[in-house]
């Protein structure tokens, strides 16, 4: 059970954060990371449009009568290979979190949620962070590393 | 986070707001923060997240107006100062009538800050209170906070390493000292984070430097025992 690495992609498809937590994957160059982020962003956008269901628009919910929208089409969520599993989490604002884990890793959703929490706390509440720019926040790095270490040692 | 809005008339909560001609806003029911009883402190806790966003915007705003770090700290300090001035009155009035005495010497003032002010603002006491061990600076005292609440989510970039956003809290302390008749200069300094794996990387020291006349007066009336 291992979490290998985390990549964060901004809504324009640029790489804003990447961190390796474990040597289970080969290291790739920063340039390759950028290409991976850009490519994934493109593929994700296309898979979102592949969704065959027509969007019926807002419909009143049977219980309350309040207009609700159906969940937007999600696009690519999981990509699996023999040695790793890539889980993608797309936030409401279009920021993507890609988590590379072991294929046997359980509860990736919970891990992802916690990482998103850390991001909203230590990145979004930091006055020195500029939106859409690479993330350089010590506090985020520190909290993230200790959280992932805890999971990897479990 | 308890009641940081106490000193700010802008912090009106609840009720629909009506705009008036002067630009001042009043809630529709006419009850401003000044109509609320001063002693009600039980339900005055605020969400830390909303404070974090507010403080983050305060820092960004200050950041857009200044050219260097000293200016930025001064601005944050000035934003805290009026809160401190009013907080002293508020905290004293909430005491029991026989305890409503303002501190008359440096130590009792600093203890009030460490215990009452910290408890009110951050829900816990400050971690340590120290007197400067340097004989040349008998006018300096230090209040230590291992993990300042205002810095909870802030990572200062490397190129601004001398900056500590707790300058805002330093301003509040300065306000309390000034309001109590002990004029002082208060600055915030980061002392943690020098080495890897430290327990308190955000440890902050608030250096309280009293004006010479405070010590002079203390020596004259014998209220300060060295």
From TrEMBL, chain A:
The keyword Glycoprotein does not apply. Pfam families: Sybindin (PF04099). It is found in: Endoplasmic reticulum; Golgi apparatus, cis-Golgi network; Golgi apparatus. InterPro entries: Longin-like_dom_sf, TRAPPC. Its main location: endoplasmic reticulum. GO terms for cellular component: endoplasmic reticulum; Golgi apparatus; TRAPP complex. Transmembrane segments: none annotated. Keywords: Endoplasmic reticulum, ER-Golgi transport, Golgi apparatus, Transport. The keyword Endoplasmic reticulum applies. GO terms for biological process: endoplasmic reticulum to Golgi vesicle-mediated transport. Belongs to the TRAPP small subunits family. TRAPPC4 subfamily. PANTHER family: TRAFFICKING PROTEIN PARTICLE COMPLEX SUBUNIT (PTHR23249), TRAFFICKING PROTEIN PARTICLE COMPLEX SUBUNIT 4 (PTHR23249:SF15). Part of the multisubunit transport protein particle (TRAPP) complex. This is Trafficking protein particle complex subunit.
From TrEMBL, chain B:
It comes from the Eukaryota. The keyword Methyltransferase does not apply. The keyword Thylakoid does not apply. It is found in: Endoplasmic reticulum; Golgi apparatus, cis-Golgi network. GO terms for biological process: endoplasmic reticulum to Golgi vesicle-mediated transport. CDD domains: TRAPPC5_Trs31 (cd14943). One of its GO terms (cellular component) is TRAPPIII protein complex. Coiled coil: none annotated. It holds the Pfam family TRAPP. Part of the multisubunit TRAPP (transport protein particle) complex. Belongs to the TRAPP small subunits family. BET3 subfamily. Plays a key role in the late stages of endoplasmic reticulum to Golgi traffic. This is Trafficking protein particle complex subunit.
């Amino acid at each position: 059970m291992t979490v290998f690495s985390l990549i964060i992609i901004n809504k324009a498809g640029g790489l804003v954060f990447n961190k390796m937590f474990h040597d289970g994957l080969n290291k790739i160059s920063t340039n390759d990371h950028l290409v991976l982020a850009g490519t994934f962003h493109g593929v994700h956008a296309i898979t979102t449009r592949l969704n065959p269901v027509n969007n019926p628009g807002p419909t009143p919910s049977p219980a309350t009568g309040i207009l609700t929208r159906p969940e937007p089409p999600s696009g690519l969520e999981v990509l699996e290979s023999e040695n790793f599993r890539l889980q993608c989490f797309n936030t409401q604002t279009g920021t993507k979190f890609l988590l590379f884990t072991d294929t046997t890793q359980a509860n990736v959703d919970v891990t992802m949620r916690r990482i998103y929490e850390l991001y909203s706390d230590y990145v979004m509440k930091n006055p020195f962070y500029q939106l859409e720019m690479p993330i350089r926040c010590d506090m985020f790095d520190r909290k993230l590393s200790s959280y992932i270490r805890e999971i990897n040692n479990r | 986070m308890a009641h940081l809005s106490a000193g700010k008339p802008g912090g009106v909560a609840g009720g629909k707001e009506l705009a008036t001609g002067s630009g001042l806003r009043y809630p529709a029911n006419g009850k401003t923060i000044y109509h609320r009883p001063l002693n009600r402190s039980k339900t005055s806790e605020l969400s830390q997240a909303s404070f974090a966003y507010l403080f983050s915007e305060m820092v960004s705003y200050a950041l857009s107006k200044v050219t260097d770090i000293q200016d930025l700290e001064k601005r944050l300090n000035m934003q805290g100062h009026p809160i401190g001035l009013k907080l002293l009155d508020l905290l004293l009035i909430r005491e029991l009538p026989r305890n409503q005495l303002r501190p008359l010497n440096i130590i009792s003032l600093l203890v009030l800050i460490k215990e009452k002010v910290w408890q009110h603002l951050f829900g816990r006491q400050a971690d340590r209170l120290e007197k400067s061990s340097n004989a040349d600076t008998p006018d300096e005292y230090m209040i230590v906070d291992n993990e300042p609440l205002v810095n909870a989510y802030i990572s200062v970039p490397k190129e601004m390493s001398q900056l500590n956003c707790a300058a805002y809290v330093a301003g509040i302390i300065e306000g309390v000292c000034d309001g109590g008749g002990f004029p002082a200069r208060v600055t915030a300094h980061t002392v943690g984070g020098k080495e890897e794996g430290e327990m308190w990387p955000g440890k902050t020291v608030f250096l309280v430097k009293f004006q010479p006349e405070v010590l002079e007066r203390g020596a004259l009336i014998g209220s300060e025992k060295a």
